C-alpha cells in the first residue's frame, strides 16, 4: 500500500492521487501537499511567557517591571492589560494601558490572565 496522506478535512484513509491533486472519495475534498504546507505556515502563533497561546481580545498580566522610553514611571509587575491585539513584528502585542496609552509589548513579558 502506498503512503498517501489522510484527508485533512475528514481524516479518511482512502485518498487517491489524481494528477497533482489528492482526492478524498468520502467527502470529495481535493488538495495538494504544497497548499497544505503553505496554509500551516501562514498561521502565526503567539505564546506568552508560560507557553500559553494568546489570541486577539485576551487579557494578560505583565510579569516584570517594564521601563517606558520618555516616561517618568514604568509599567509595574502585575499590571492587567485587557483586550490585546496581536500584530507582526518584534513587539507582537498592541494594547492600551491605563496611565500610559497605546503601547506595544513583547509576548515574553506577559502571561495570560
TrEMBL record:
Domain of life per record: Bacteria
Record SUPFAM superfamilies: Prokaryotic SH3-related domain (SSF82057), Zinc beta-ribbon (SSF57783)
UniProt domain Protein YjdM N-terminal: residue ranges: 4-32
Domain Protein YjdM C-terminal: 46-113
PANTHER family recorded: PROTEIN YJDM, PROTEIN YJDM-RELATED
Similarity comment: Belongs to the YjdM family.
Protein's name in the database: Protein YjdM
Organism, scientific name: Clostridium senegalense
